[in-house]
Amino acid sequence: MAATTALVLRGLSMEYVRGKPVLRGIDLEVGTEGLTAIIGPSGTGKSTLIRCINRLVDPTAGEILFHGQDLARLRGEALRHARRRIGMVFQEYNLVERLSVMENVLSGRLGYVSPWKAWMRKYPQEDIDRAFELLEIVGLAAFPNQRADSLSGGQRQRVGIARAVMQRPQLLLADEPTSSLDPKTSVEIMELMRDIGRRQSIPVMVNMHDVELARRFADRIVGMSGGAIVFDGPPGDLADDHLKGIYGGEGWLQ
After folding, report:
1. How far apart are CA 22 and CA 72, in angstroms?
2. Each residue of 119-142: pLDDT tens digit?
3. What is the mean pLDDT of residues 19-32?
4. N or C, where is the chain less crowded by C-beta within 10 Å?
5. Are strands 35-39 and 171-175 parallel, antiparallel or unpaired?
6. Could you give the CA distance from residue 215 to residue 204 in angstroms, rounded to a whole number?
7. Which residues of 6-44 are buried (b: 16+ CB within 10 A; e: fewer)?
8. Neighbours of 109 (CB within 10 A)
9. What's the pLDDT band for 202 if we cut at 50, 70, 90?
10. pLDDT category, 250, cuts 50, 70, 90?
11. pTM of the model as a whole
């Protein structure tokens, strides 16, 4: 695998129910930079694809080559170590609501400290300094001690992004990170992920429904339909005919 490639999927398939594939032999390469948006109708396998990559679900067949290591074959400690290098931003934030913003961000380092230190919340000063830097980057420098459950949806997603980047990942995945947000906040979150990816040289993969957001912020768009990739190219190449093939029909196009 070339040094410019972070992730290679080969024949990736997934079935929750035998004989009913959700992913159908996905082949995909992702470079070491840029934002890739995955679009497609509900139920076409976008979330399953993202969750297979970081092994939140196990693929039925195929390879997930992450910097040359096949994640699909890893188990136990080897898998835990590999997953430390993949940050994840969730649709519903997945924060610990009763903890502070700072504690949630620092939890991105849980895979790197001993269980005792994690329990006692004793993180190295380097990690604490890094967490403050990230809070500044995501626009929450004034909120380190505020409880997560007191934040707005957009603020919670910013905490989720900071927590994921706190891992110092080599790949950042996001599963519908704007679906619960208003249009203005959605733009801000997409802009933040794009800019963080560029500044810190982290490739970003975002599963999303909003085609216009994908066109505006992605360097590359992957369109899925029926568990397969039916479009792969730059935003400028995504024409109405492609959207018809991805989503079906044309009455919804303006």
Report:
1. 17
2. 677 888 999 999 999 999 999 999
3. 95
4. C
5. unpaired
6. 15
7. bbbbbebbbbeeeeebbbbebebebebebbbbbbbeeeb
8. 22
9. very high
10. low
11. 0.93
Backbone angles phi, psi at 215, to 5 degrees: -60, -40
Q: Estimate the crossing angle of helix 125-137 against helix 153-166, to 10 degrees.
A: 140
pLDDT at 31: 95
User: Strand locations in the chain, DSSP E?
Assistant: 5-17, 20-31, 35-39, 61-66, 69-70, 86-89, 171-175, 204-207, 220-225, 228-233
Domain 1-85+173-254 top-level CATH class: alpha beta
Distance CA 197, CA 208 (A): 17
Alpha-carbon distance of 132 to 104, in angstroms, equals 12
Are 174 and 186 in contact by the 8 Å Cβ rule? The answer is: no
Residues in the chain: 254
* Domain locations along the chain: 1-85+173-254, 92-168
pLDDT at 4: 84
**Residue 250: helix, strand or coil by DSSP?**
coil
Q: Which two tokens stand for residue 34?
A: 């840029």
